[in-house]
Amino acid sequence: MAQATENTLEFIEHFGPHPAYAAGVRLETGVEPDKLVKTHCCFCGQQCGIQLKVKDNEVIGFEPWEEFPFNRGMLCPKGVKRYLQGSHPDRLLHAYQRDPASEGGFRELAYDQAIALVAAEIQRIQSTHGNDAFGVLTGASLTTEKAYLMGKFARMCLKTANIDYNGRLCMVSAGAANKKAFGIDRAANPWSDILKAEVVWISGANIAECAPITTNYVWQAREYGAKIIVVDPRITPIARTCDLFLPVKPGRDIALFNGILHLMIENDWLDHDFITKHTVGFEAVAEHVHEWNPKKTAEVTGISERAIRQAAEWWGQAKSSFLLHARGIEHHTHGVQNCLGAINMVLASGRIGRENCGYATITGQANGQGGREHGQKCDQLPGARDISNPEHRAYVAGVWGITPEEMPQAGVDAYEMFRLIDRGEIRGLLSICFNPKVSLPDNSFITRCLEKLEFYVAIDFFLNETAEHADIVLPGSLQEEDEGVVTQIEGRVIKINKAVDPPGDAKQDWRIIQDIAKALEREKGFTFSSPREIFNELRIASKGGIADYSGITYEKIEKQYGVFWPCPSDDHPGTPRLFELGSLNPIAKGSGPFYFPDGRARFNVAPYTPPAEDTDEEYPLMLTTGRVVSQFLSGTQTRRIGPLVDQYPEPLIEIHPQLAQKLGIANGDLTTVESRRGDITLPAMVVTTIRPDTVFVPYHWPGRKSINQLTISAQDPISKIPEYKVCAVRVRKATGNGS
Amino acid sequence: MVPEQNEFFMDPNRCIGCQACVQACSECETHKGYSMIHLDYVDRAHSIQTAPVVCLHCDSPTCAEVCPADAIKKTADGVVQTALKPRCIGCNNCVLACPFGVPKMKTEFKLMMKCDMCYDRTSEGLKPMCATVCPSQALFFGTREEIELLRPRSVATNQFRFGEQTITTKVNMMLPKSGKAEYVDVTAAMSERGSGKTISLNILDGMYNEEQSQ
Predict the structure, then answer these.
(1) I need a labelling partner for A540 at 20 to 30 A (CA). Which of A163, A236, A443, A688 fits?
(2) b/e string for A557-572 if b means 16 or more Cβ within 10 A?
(3) What is the pLDDT of residue B199?
């Protein structure tokens, strides 16, 4: 079975992670590049424009791309050093097969032979245990073309219901809430609407570290007079200069939103006209928040009554505003309810669908938006269509040339897929662009599941920690080795341009998928010769859906610096701002600006529930997790880029001095944090910038440095997002040799 | 020549400590692999505040004045350069003397290296790397008209006081307009406690406090 190879010196020598630094031609001065390729950063959802310097099929550096309107040349340290992921010593140049006798535990294999083995194993497992016994895990850093192809591959070629993606850990709570409230899942506004807002409300978003360029939008708004309200258990860099900081107790955001709405109603800070004409459900919500008076809100949230009243007054009386939130309120067993609570505040203010009046979740991954629209999510088909809707099934089946009956029904979410592996219902797995052994909560369970797989094939450009369990590893492509579109944080569809060819036997991911389809002798529908051809089919598949890309072309993207969807026809310029009065959409058909048949937005009662695992005598403290600016997600790329590794080499436990003193812990002391699922020992970082009842550890590292050994796998019942942002722990000074 | 209307403005109040400037600086053509920017936490135990320091390019650069080998030159447009390799004796005088702590002694080259405001870029009308990439625009390069429009709450100064000495620099520092300061009193600031609103998280006195400290 798929035991991970031991991380021996031999393994590390072959597969890393090695921290790469500039060397050779990259350090030489006066090198004239062969070309500058205008493209985008490979990391977060902002998708900053960047120009890659290419010399002899190698990315040797970058030049800022100041014309691209979102970031105008600005980049974070990850963007600056992202070029070092190319020509990397750890780069997979061949297919590999597990072989304990070989150095490093894997042996090189001819690409065609590897593909044949993969096809044979898929056939064996599916013919013995049924089609659904083979699962597919994908990712939201894939281009939209690849995401679309993965969904089509799972449903049409493998005929399995079990496909899901790592956006499950990212944007699904906001997406589900947006659909419930607005009927559409997209940031409602371009970021330019932040600049002139009177109040910017930021809940659970470490903007300066996770979406650094957005800082400039927020702080520019502040220069023009905006009040900035930040809600977070930590004083993050964006909180440092905010006008009002609300240090919420982890997992209590919904109580705050309900409390604010309570005060808005009490003081009649409401847009009655908007509520009457453009929404439904206000009365029920008003009744529900009646009990959330400032005293109760303060008790539950741990925020002072005075600060709650001040926040309500600024929010209530503003003429324009922008509300932003991110994983901080979304990574909860009531993540959808948290988002709905925030949206209720926005709807009651009537400040949406207009210039300088906006709302958005800050999408995390490169294609967090586009990757959740076109069918790699277990319950979704292209165009943000619903796989359980007969009309939607019929339309997409028509595009694919199959019958609706041939299309599998909805599968299960990414975490549940591991539970199916545990129960023996899923026997084989294909993964691409996903490193669940680092990124999923309670990850010793994930390791046990990986060990149970009969067959596992991983497609990647580096051998990540999950792929260490693979039977076959197929060498895929880096972002700069392929072209295609992604949809960034604002809903703007942009174009990734190819800078270099994949090295060695490495192939563009869509070619690998098509090669597997061919080896399975199910080539029909998988004979594309370019990403452009895939995109053109995707345009048709999305036509008439909510996420309508049919009027978007590569050329239009280039000409306009991106196209905001929906863009339903060739002569349509795209839709930067949603919900403008008088705007048309295919659901409301002119009856109103929101995406429901009556054109009205929905208020949703958002009841407060505590976290799945509250503190008790045994585990009296809260653990919350997140990111640092120099690393990205599970670190497959950024833990291999030397200058980024040096910036923050290993995880630290952030702990308040009051708690540290009580526990006898000094700054730098090895400290052990334990939950019911596992423990971790790391140096303490004693800082006053965190709540004294909470500790924080970033999650980018594997093995014994992985905080996801401790996190809880409890999930939101609607979105299935795990509760990364709070679980119960105890903390002590480490004893002995640090375990 | 650096076009006269283009100026450098530092606004530490906006720094988020991300080190994009540090990382971008090491991509500069003239000193690849080495960053000339200093970026530090002011007091991480108590604040997330960081501050970036690029060379301020003094009108009368102390580093050049104390150099026994006359190795540090200023261009006609006021940019103080890295020491001249044939002249630099690696004595460290400049490193010790610079009031802003800017020069770096690269012992592997026996050479003092420092920020030259990306002269290869700025002299061709481009922005320096650091100010181009800075995600929060704590480092800003542009015209005075632009900065006045973008930072209505701040005012630029290029006067720094060290005891009795006043240093005038090419690079500007943004100060709060409300403070009405004509110069930055660096020596006084070194022993000054933080002032204005600070946030503290204190479980004993209730979770949220705004302290007006002096």
Answers:
(1) A163
(2) beebbbbbbbbbeeeb
(3) 59
Interface test with B, best of A36, A55, A227, A240 (most B CBs within 10 A): A240
Are A203 and A328 within 8 A, CB to CB?
A: yes
Matching CATH number, A95-169+367-480+507-544, of 3.40.50.10490, 3.20.20.60, 3.40.50.740, 1.10.3710.10: 3.40.50.740
Q: Å from B50 to nearest chain A CA? A: 9
CA B160 to chain A, closest CA, distance in angstroms equals 24
Amino acid identity at A423: R
Tell me how crowded residue A276 is: count the other CB atoms within 10 A of its CB: 11
Kindly report the CA angle at A336 between A332 and A337, in degrees rounded to 5? 95
On the question of a cis peptide bond just before residue A17, with omega within 30 degrees of 0, the verdict is yes
| C-alpha pair distances (Å), A257 with each of A289, A292, A339 | 9, 9, 9
Percent of chain A with pLDDT over 90: 96
End-to-end alpha-carbon separation of chain A, Å? 29
Tell me, yes or no, whether B101 lies in a domain: yes
Residue of B nearest to A80 (CA): B24
> For residue B138, what are its two tokens?
């704590």
Q: Which of A299, A313, A300, A302 is nearest to A262 (CA)?
A: A313
CA distance A465 to chain B (A): 27
The residue with greater pLDDT, B28 or A559, is A559
Chain A residues 286-325 within an 8 A CB cutoff of chain B: 302-304, 307
Interchain pair A77, B137: CB under 8 A: no
Peptide bond just before A190 cis, omega within 30 deg: no
What ipTM score was computed for the predicted complex, to two decimals? 0.95
Domain assignment present for B69: yes
Residue A56: how many other CB atoms lie within 10 Å: 10
The answer to whether the beta carbons of residues A707 and A625 sit under 8 Å apart is yes
Q: How confident is the model at residue B207 (pLDDT cuts 50, 70, 90)?
A: very low
Residue A648 phi, psi dihedral angles, 5° rounding: -155, 85
Q: Cα–Cα distances in Å, from A599 out to A220, A323, A346, A582?
A: 34, 22, 17, 10
Report CA B111 to chain centroid distance, whole Å: 21
Q: Is residue B156 part of a domain?
A: yes
Asked whether the beta carbons of residue A74 and residue B48 sit closer than 8 angstroms, the reply is: no
Residue of A nearest to B47 (CA): A689
Tell me if chain B has a CB within 8 Å of the CB of A212.
yes
State the Cα–Cα distance between residues A329 and A719, nearest whole angstrom. 13
Q: Mind listing the pLDDT tens digit for each residue in A496-547?
A: 999 999 999 999 999 999 999 999 999 999 999 999 999 999 999 999 999 9
Record: contact B199-A304, CB cut-off 8 A: no
**Residue B124, domain extent:** 7-213
Q: Residue A6 burial by CB count (10 A; 0-12/13-18/19+): exposed, middle or buried?
A: exposed
For domain A188-361, give the CATH superfamily. Answer: Dimethylsulfoxide Reductase, domain 2 (3.40.228.10)
Helical (H) or strand (E) element with A112? helix A111-129
pLDDT at A739: 45
Q: Please list every residue in chain B whose beta carbon sits closer than 8 Å to the beta carbon of residue A245.
A: 199, 208
- Return the DSSP state at A155: I
A557/B contact by beta carbon, under 8 A: no
pLDDT at residue A662 above 70?
yes
DSSP element (H, E) containing B159:
strand B154-162
Round to whole Å and give the CA distance between A149 and A514. Answer: 9
Backbone angles phi, psi at A318, to 5 degrees: -65, 150
Rounded Cα gap, residues A43 and A263, in angstroms:
40
Q: Are A359 and A349 contacting, i.e. CB atoms less than 8 angstroms apart?
A: no
